[in-house]
Amino acid sequence: MHSIALSFYIISGFVIFWAMVGYPIFMKLLRIFYSTRKLNKDYNYQPTVTVMVVAHNEEKVIEKKLKNLLEINYPNEKLNYIVASDHSTDKTNVIVKNFIKSHSQTNICLYEVKERKGKTNAQNEAQKIVNSEMLVMTDANSMLDKNSVMELVAAFADENISYVSGRLMYHNANVGVSEMESTYWDADTKLRNIESDIQTITAGNGALYACRNSEYHDFDPIKCHDSQMPRFYALKNKRALYNPDAIAYEKAGEILEDEFKRKVRMNRGILMDIMPDIRILNVFKYRWYTFFYIGHRTCRYLLWAAHLTLLISNIPLLQYGYMFLFVILFQITFFLLGGIQFKLQSDNRYLRLINYYCMTILAQWVGVYNIITGKTKPYWEKAESTR
């Protein structure tokens, strides 16, 4: 009994350590051995491009978004825009139609999805009318740097590259919970940058990314491109890259409830994403991608289970020394501090980081619960504090 408890204890402890500490450290060391590998760009490569914006009831930001798109630095004759409206019931469609009328010299069109089935379904439907060589995806509330499209396209330096993700920057990174999200996001994108330079990334960014239109795949509406596309191409031995010079700007959620709901939505496929395809384990074929996915994705998607397993397996081991007592007290204290920070809304940065981590684990648990109970949906209500 105790040997079983110890096995679970060691495994769960390792998963937590590797996800949050071990993998980031190892990647920084690995970067030293691959220091000569950098992202190649070809700015002379200028294929036709369609920029797709998916929107559902975005009347607050859609006009600002359209004006932002017109500032993009790319040959006009090679650039088209499409707004895929996911059955919007507010003034979104009217605003887009009026904008198109007042900018008749610009290649903008509106695709109206008749039944709301979520972002991925809207992308699947709208892609059918796209004829350009490259397809750039962006969110309605993400404002693009004028060179973002040029940067994305330039990163498709050869035919082996099928996907390029841009860099999301938060312009309210010093406000409440958004500071914690920005801190986490900056650390995560540094890992993606290393993965990209060595071989391929394990996940993208919904605010801004591109793929070859000919290689677009219709994913199940319950799934999102952020996690599905890089993996889909990696398993075809294609590359999915990260270009930090292709920039999109957003507001991070400033309200804890908004950020929590967003994380719950992100975990709508967490059980499947732990090991979505057995082929990932074929290290001889997929090389570093196998290591990247298990370290960066599998271990993180297991945090909800690892913390519970570590706590439970710790109990029968208490009689074997003070180390086990220390660990269980540390765990309990850690989560209590997260709850205290939530209750008192302390400004202490370390307490806020602990609270943010606890919120992330709780969001995973809610995601798992929604999957098991069939409450997972392919769409969601946007966080108003990000608009």
Could you name the key traits of this structure?
single chain; about 375 residues; alpha/beta; about 50% helix; about 15% strand; globular
Structural account:
The chain is an alpha/beta fold. It has 14 helices and eight strands. Strands 3-2-1-4-7-6-8-5 form an eight-stranded mixed sheet, with helices on both faces. It is globular, with a radius of gyration of 22 Å. The relative contact order is 0.14. The mean pLDDT is 92.
Strand order of the largest sheet: 3-2-1-4-7-6-8-5
**On the 0-100 scale, what is the average pLDDT?**
92
Query: What composes the largest sheet?
Result: 8 strands, mixed
* Regions with little confidence, pLDDT below 50 for 5+ residues: none
Q: What global shape is seen?
A: globular
Annotation field: number of helices: 14
Listing every helix as H and every strand as E from the N terminus to the C terminus, the arrangement reads HEHEHEHEEHEHEHEHHHHHHH
What is the end-to-end distance? 53 Å
Estimate the helix proportion, in percent. 40-55%
Assign the structural class, choosing from mainly alpha, mainly beta, alpha/beta, alpha+beta, or little secondary structure: alpha/beta
> How many DSSP E strands?
8
Strand content: 5-15%
Radius of gyration: 22 Å
